[in-house]
C-alpha cells in the first residue's frame, strides 16, 4: 500500500499539540511530520528533560512545558500520557482549549479515560478517544519512529451523538500514517483489549516474576536457557511499568473477568497434567495451533520461525 | 565465531543413525552433513510418508523404516521422537545396536527419558541424554535447517560413572554445529526447563485456549487485534501438540511445582488489581524489565523492538 505513506498535499490539522513525548507521542510527531498531517506540531511535556530532548531531536516546531499554553490555537490535541494521568492533564490544559478543537488520546483503556477526561473539557470541544494497537517494549522520546503505526490498527471510540465530521478528520489523520481505522464503543474496546493485550501482559509479567524468585534454579540459568520459551515473555514484560500499572488499575473489571476465565482453564489443564490426561492436553494444543494459522493468514504476523531467532535469520 | 561452522576434517562418527526426521531430526541430518560430523547418515522413521519425503529431500545416505536394521553398525544413534515414544523406539531398535555405540536423544525432558530408554539398552552401549535448546513452532522434515543449533545451548545429562570419552565425543559432534555444550544432571535439567520452557508453553497454550472460548469477543476480533500482546503467545502455542503433550505428562512433578508458584504469584497480582494496589503492580513491572535487560546483555535475544514487527523492520 505505497500511497498510504505518501505525504498529504493538504495537512489534516493546522496546529497539532501532542502532550507527552514518550514512545507513542514522539512517534506521532515523527509520523505527522513525514506524512504532512499537521502544519505546525507543538510538543508539550511536564518533564523539562523530555522537553530538552525533544528540542535536541527536532521533533516539533514548538516545545513547551506549559500545557494550557501549548494547546491554545490548536485544532487537535492528543494526550499521549499514561492512562492514570489523563484526568490531571485534561484539567491542566482545559483552560487553553480552543472552541471546536478535537481532543484525543492513545490510551490502552477507553472507558476510564472518558470518565477522567470528559468532565474537564469545555462545551464545543470534541473528545474522540483513540487507541493505536502499536508499540514496542521501549520508552521515551528516543524510542519512537515514524512507521510505528503503519499497517497497524487504530481504534476510535467516539461518544454517542458525537460530531461525525470530527471523527472523520481524526480517522484521516491516522490513515495518513498507514493505520487501519476501526470504530467501536469504549466498553467493547476495553473487553477486546483485556483479552488480546492486558491479560497477556499480566501473565507475562507474572511468569517473569515467578522465575525471578526461584531459589533452586538460579536466575542466571533462567537467563541462559531463556530461548526455550521464556524469552518471548520477557519482551512483553519489559513494557513501561507506569503505563501498565495504570492499565490494570483502570480496566479492572474486564481484566478480572478475563483472568477468572484464564484461571478456570488453567486449573483444568493442571488437573489434566496431574492425572495424566494426554487427550485433553493434545486437544487443546491442536486447537491453539489453528488460531496461530489464522493470525498469519490475516497478516498480523509472519510465519518466519522465531524461537531460534539468530539461527532462523541465517536460514537462507 | 566463524570456525564453529567450518566443516570438520575428520567426522566425529563413522555412521550416524537419526530416528525420527521431524524438525529436530532433519535439522541434525542437515547440520551433520554440512559440518562433516558423520561419514554416513542413516535416517529411520516408522512413517513411510516421512521416509519418502526424506528421500526426496536427499537428507540422508540411507533411509529405512526398520529401526533395528537402521541402527546396526552405527556408532551413534540419536532418538528425535516425542518423549513419550522414546521407550518403544528404544525397545524396537535395541536388538540392532552395536557394542560401544552411543545412544542419545533430543527430548525436552530427561529424567523420564532415562527411565524409559535405559532398561532396553544392552550392556556396553553408552546412553547420553541430550537436549538442544533450539526449535521453531514448525514441524516435519521440511521444517528443519542446518543452522538451527548455531549459538544455541545443548544440554547433556550423562549418567553418573558414565563413559567420559563417549560424552566428549557427543559434545564434539554438537559443537560442530555451533552449539554451546552444558552438562548437568537430569533432575536439575528438568527443573530448569520446567520454568524456562514448559511453564511458558503451558501458559501460552492456556491463554490462547481461553481467548478461543470467549463469546463476547469474537474470535475474529482476537485475531485482528492480536498484535497488542496476544500474538506473541500464539507463536509458542503453535508448537507440536504431540511433543508438548508428552513433555507435560513426563515432567509432571516439576511442571506442577512451577505452576503452583505461578498461581500463587498470579493470585497476589489479581488481589493487587482488585484492591487498586498500584505500588505492588509497579514494583513487579519494574523488576521484570531488569530481567529482560539481562537476557539481551547475555546475547540470548536482540533489543530490536518486536511488537510492531513490520513497522520496526522499516525503522531505518
Order of helices and strands of chain A: EHEHEHEHEHEEEHEHHHHHHH
CATH architectural name of the largest domain in chain A: 3-Layer(aba) Sandwich
Radius of gyration of chain A: 22 Å
Question: How confident overall, as mean pLDDT of chain A?
Answer: 91
- Biggest β-sheet of chain A, characterized? 6 strands, parallel
Kindly estimate the percentage of residues of chain A that lie in beta strands according to DSSP.
5-15%
Q: Largest interface, counted with CB-CB under 8 A? A: A-B, 114 and 114 residues
Structure description:
Two copies of one chain form a homodimer. With 316 residues, chain A is an alpha/beta fold. Chain A has two domains: 7-184, NAD(P)-binding Rossmann-like Domain (Rossmann fold); 188-300, 6-phosphogluconate dehydrogenase C-terminal fold. Chain A has helices at residues 23-35, 48-57, 67-71, 86-93, 111-117, 164-175, 186-212, 219-224, 230-236, 241-250, 252-274, 278-297, 309-313, and strands at residues 13-19, 38-44, 62-64, 76-79, 102-105, 126-127, 130-132, 153-156, 180-183. In chain A, the strands form two sheets. A six-stranded parallel sheet of chain A has the order 3-2-1-4-5-6, with helices on both faces. In chain A, strand 1, helix 1 (23-35) and strand 2 form a beta-alpha-beta unit. In chain A, helix 7 (186-212) crosses helix 11 (252-274). The longest helix of chain A has 27 residues, at 186-212. In chain A, 56% of the residues are buried. Residues 306-316 of chain A have low confidence and may be disordered. At the A-B interface, helix 7, helix 8, helix 9, helix 10 and helix 11 of A face helix 7, helix 8, helix 9, helix 10 and helix 11 of B.
Amino acid at each position: 500500500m505505497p500511497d498510504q505513506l505518501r505525504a498529504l498535499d493538504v495537512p489534516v490539522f493546522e496546529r497539532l499539540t501532542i502532550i507527552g513525548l514518550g514512545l507513542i507521542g514522539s512517534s506521532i510527531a515523527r509520523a505527522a511530520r513525514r506524512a504532512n498531517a499537521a502544519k505546525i506540531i507543538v510538543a508539550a511535556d511536564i518533564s523539562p528533560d523530555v522537553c530538552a530532548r525533544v528540542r535536541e531531536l527536532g521533533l516539533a516546531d514548538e516545545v513547551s512545558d506549559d500545557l494550557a499554553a501549548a494547546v491554545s490555537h490548536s485544532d487537535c490535541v492528543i494526550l499521549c500520557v499514561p492512562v492514570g494521568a489523563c484526568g490531571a492533564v485534561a484539567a491542566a490544559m482545559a483552560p487553553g482549549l480552543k472552541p471546536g478543537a478535537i481532543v484525543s488520546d492513545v490510551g490502552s483503556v477507553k472507558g476510564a479515560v472518558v470518565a477522567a477526561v470528559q468532565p474537564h473539557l469545555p462545551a464545543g470541544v470534541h473528545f474522540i478517544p483513540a487507541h493505536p494497537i502499536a508499540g514496542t517494549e521501549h520508552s521515551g522520546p528516543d524510542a519512537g519512529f515514524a512507521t510505528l503505526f503503519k499497517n497497524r490498527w487504530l481504534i476510535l471510540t467516539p461518544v454517542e451523538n458525537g460530531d461525525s465530521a470530527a471523527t472523520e478528520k481524526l480517522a484521516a489523520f491516522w490513515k495518513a500514517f498507514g493505520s487501519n481505522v476501526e470504530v467501536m464503543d469504549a466498553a467493547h474496546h476495553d473487553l477486546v483489549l483485556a483479552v488480546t493485550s492486558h491479560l497477556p501482559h499480566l501473565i507475562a509479567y507474572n511468569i517473569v516474576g515467578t522465575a525471578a524468585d526461584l531459589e533452586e534454579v538460579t536466575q542466571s540459568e533462567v537467563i541462559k536457557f531463556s530461548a526455550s520459551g521464556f524469552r518471548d515473555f520477557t519482551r512483553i514484560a519489559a513494557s513501561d511499568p507506569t503505563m501498565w500499572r495504570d492499565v490494570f488499575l483502570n480496566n479492572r473489571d474486564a481484566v478480572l473477568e478475563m483472568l477468572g476465565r484464564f484461571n478456570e482453564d488453567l486449573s483444568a489443564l493442571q488437573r489434566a497434567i496431574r492425572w495424566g490426561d494426554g487427550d485433553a492436553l493434545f486437544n487443546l494444543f491442536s486447537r491453539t495451533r489453528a488460531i496461530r494459522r489464522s493470525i498469519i493468514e490475516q497478516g498480523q504476523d509472519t510465519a518466519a520461525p522465531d524461537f531460534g531467532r539468530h539461527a532462523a535469520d541465517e536460514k537462507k
